[in-house]
Specification:
The chain is of the alpha/beta class. It has helices spanning about 45-60, 75-85, 100-110, 210-215, 250-265, 270-290, 315-320, 325-340, 365-385; strands spanning about 70-75, 95, 120, 140-145, 145, 150, 165-170, 185-190, 200-205, 230, 235, 295, 310-315, 355-360. It contains 9 helices and 14 strands. Helix 1 (about 45-60) runs parallel beside helix 5 (about 250-265), helix 5 (about 250-265) crosses helix 6 and helix 6 runs parallel beside helix 9.
């Protein structure tokens, strides 16, 4: 079943973390040599660099011209909180959760914003709710890809084009690796640290014209922290969406984001990025098909993520262990790969079932995925012995 000895070839890049993710192939600190360190983000070149991030983002992702794109604080979390606190409360909410981050948004809606008219649709790790039950005449809050569960929304067919509500989509581990139907989405957020392998702490917020109309017409009943405010005098603060950020961004991170976007253009834009990520998933699928001990947490291929690829252990020996021992063995497998310098940060998320989570985003080379797979067999055989 497994090789009797350790494999000899190791991945060239052992970084398989689901965030911060692997840097693009060929990246070195020298890639940031043109960063505007020591310069104000409000200087003419500083604002130009921030605006360039926005413009290149629009071009690579194909975001409609009438959508607003802003760089905001606190990574994807800050961007999504900003969207929820600013947009929700006018009408009922359908909130979806099938992993830890989606559950976090549900908790904030119910316990922090304290909205009363909330319907929650939940599913177990590795699956998604029945999307046909969602009413898009209500506001809808959901993740496109469950970063900690490896399960994604397959498409946007369940969202009505003539919907009355707004769709708020946390797309942080989906954007740049999956097709997003922008005409069906009203507030989309993500961070630089996922598919593009950028540095953390900065979020992106994309707003449809419908979302802007809500912002300018509706004022939530709760106090709004300054860092969340997107309107002034009932009008959108346009500067946020042309590079005039709410707070001070790192110009090193800005240069890194630009480096990633230029690389994305060099590999064929969005289609090239998707193909790289899908090739990584395909390599793991071919291995899982023959594996006697590993299976996908997302059993349904239609909802299986091609970025945060989550695996469970199905070996009879493992299944016969207590839950505590299962968790310990999975942790030992991950630690062994780390000790050997083969793969870092492969463990499942703390709230997810024990197992492996392999990042397969576009910055990961398929050759590194292929080199990793024999080591997974070796490590499992070692912890089973």
């Amino acid at each position: 079943m497994q090789p009797a000895t350790q494999p000899t070839a190791k991945p060239q890049n052992p970084n398989f973390s689901s965030g911060p993710c692997a840097k693009r192939p060929g990246w070195t600190p020298e890639s940031l040599s043109k960063a505007l360190v020591g310069r104000s983000h409000r200087s003419k070149p500083g604002k130009a660099a921030l605006k360039e991030v926005i413009d290149r983002t629009r071009a690579v992702l194909g975001i409609p011209a009438d959508y607003h794109i802003g760089i905001v604080p606190a990574s994807d979390t800050g961007a999504f909180e900003m969207a929820m606190w600013s947009l929700l409360g006018e009408r009922g909410v359908d909130a979806l959760a099938w992993e830890s981050f989606g559950q976090g948004w549900v908790s904030d809606i119910e316990k922090q914003l304290k909205l009363k008219d909330v319907r929650v649709f939940k599913a177990e790790y590795g699956t998604i709710p029945n999307m046909a039950e969602v009413d898009t005449d209500r506001d809808v809050v959901f993740t496109w890809n469950g970063t900690t569960s490896g399960a994604k929304v397959p498409n946007g067919d369940w969202i009505k084009e003539n919907r009355l509500g707004l769709t708020l989509c946390d797309a942080t581990s989906a954007v740049f690796a999956m097709d997003l139907p922008w005409n069906k989405l009203d507030a989309v957020t993500y961070s630089w640290q996922k598919v593009m392998g950028g540095e953390a702490a900065h979020g992106m917020l994309v707003l449809s014209p419908r979302a802007v109309e809500r912002l300018e017409r509706y004022s939530p009943p709760w106090p709004m922290p300054k860092i969340f405010r997107m309107t002034k005098g009932g009008k959108l603060i346009d500067g946020i969406f042309v590079g005039e950020t709410i707070n001070t961004p790192s110009m090193l991170c800005v240069e890194d984001a630009l480096d990633g976007l230029r690389w994305a253009e060099s590999v064929g834009g969005l289609n090239g990025l998707k193909q790289r990520s899908e090739a990584n998933l395909a390599a793991i699928e071919a291995w899982v098909e023959k594996s006697p001990w590993a299976a996908f947490l997302a059993e349904d291929k239609a909802v299986r993520s091609n970025t945060s690829i989550c695996l469970k252990i199905v070996d009879d020996w493992y299944q016969g262990l207590s839950a505590e021992d299962q968790a310990a063995k999975a942790k030992a497998l991950v630690s062994l790969l780390d000790k050997e310098g083969v793969a870092y940060d492969l463990g499942a998320y703390r709230d997810a079932p024990p197992g492996l989570r392999i990042w397969g985003g576009a910055t990961v080379e398929t050759s590194d995925i292929e080199a990793l797979l024999p080591w997974l067999d070796w490590a499992f055989a070692s912890v089973k012995a």
